Amino acid sequence: MAGTFSQIYIQYVFAVKGRQNLLQKPWREEVFQYISGIIKGKNQKPIIVNGVADHVHVFVGLKPSMLISDLVRDIKNNSSNFINERKFIKGKFSWQEGYGVFSYAQSQVETVYQYIANQEEHHKKQTFKEEYVEFLNRYEVEFDEKYLFDWNDG
Predict the structure, then answer these.
(1) How many CB atoms lie within 10 A of CB 122?
(2) Residues 128, 148 contacting (CB under 8 angstroms)
(3) Which pLDDT score, from 0 to 100, does residue 2 have?
(4) DSSP states of 24-55
(5) What span, in angstroms and rounded, lies between the C-alpha atoms of 12 and 42?
(6) Rounded CA gap, 101 and 30, in Å?
(7) Under 8 Å between Cβ of 75 and 38
(8) Beta-sheet pairing, 45-52 with 100-104
(9) Measured between alpha carbons, how far is residue 21 from residues 26, 68, 81, 149 in Å?
(10) What pLDDT does 153 receive?
């Protein structure tokens, strides 16, 4: 019997609720490692998880048996519970509703990895809003700006 073989590369992008700068450096890496563990626990391949204080990029090798929406739901639910249980912030932590998801070819994996690895440096030059809208435009995703994340531009 023939097997099924695949490698689908997906990047998720999602933000802290209200785009607040809550993912602080002293514990941010622990959250990213936890997110990688969630992905592994779902039998998927975490390539890199990184971000800055207000948003996260998650790059995954996804098997076709896993729905894109199920994985991001589980990542967001479980990681927000982890942050709240650890009491990393005062009050309740949560992610904003919605997310961006973008697919890549094998030949792009290293470039995407480096891009995600260098988020701190990247966001010295470009805001998250500029980055996110650029992704949507580059991938020709139709959108209405009123349905994008709540932007904390002030």
Answers:
(1) 15
(2) no
(3) 75
(4) -HHHHHHHHHHHHHHHHHTT-EEEEEEEETTE
(5) 16
(6) 23
(7) yes
(8) unpaired
(9) 13, 26, 18, 14
(10) 53
For the chain, which ranges sit under pLDDT 70? 1, 151-154
Cα–Cα dist 67/114, whole Å? 26
CA 47 to centroid of chain Cα atoms: 12
Domains of the chain (ranges; CATH) run 8-147 (3.30.70.1290)
For Cα atoms 29, 86, 16, give the angle at the middle one, nearest 5 degrees.
60
* Cα dihedral 28, 70, 18, 80 in deg (nearest 10): -40
Answer yes or no: are the C-beta atoms of 152 and 83 closer than 8 Å.
Answer: no
Q: How far is CA 65 from the centre of its chain?
A: 20
DSSP letter for each residue of the chain: -------EEEEEEEEBGGG-----HHHHHHHHHHHHHHHHHTT-EEEEEEEETTEEEEEEEE-TTS-HHHHHHHHHHHHHHHHHHHT-SSS---BPS--EEEEE-GGGHHHHHHHHHTHHHHTTTS-HHHHHHHHHHHTT----GGGSPPP---
In tens, the pLDDT along 80-105 reads 999 999 999 999 999 999 999 999 99
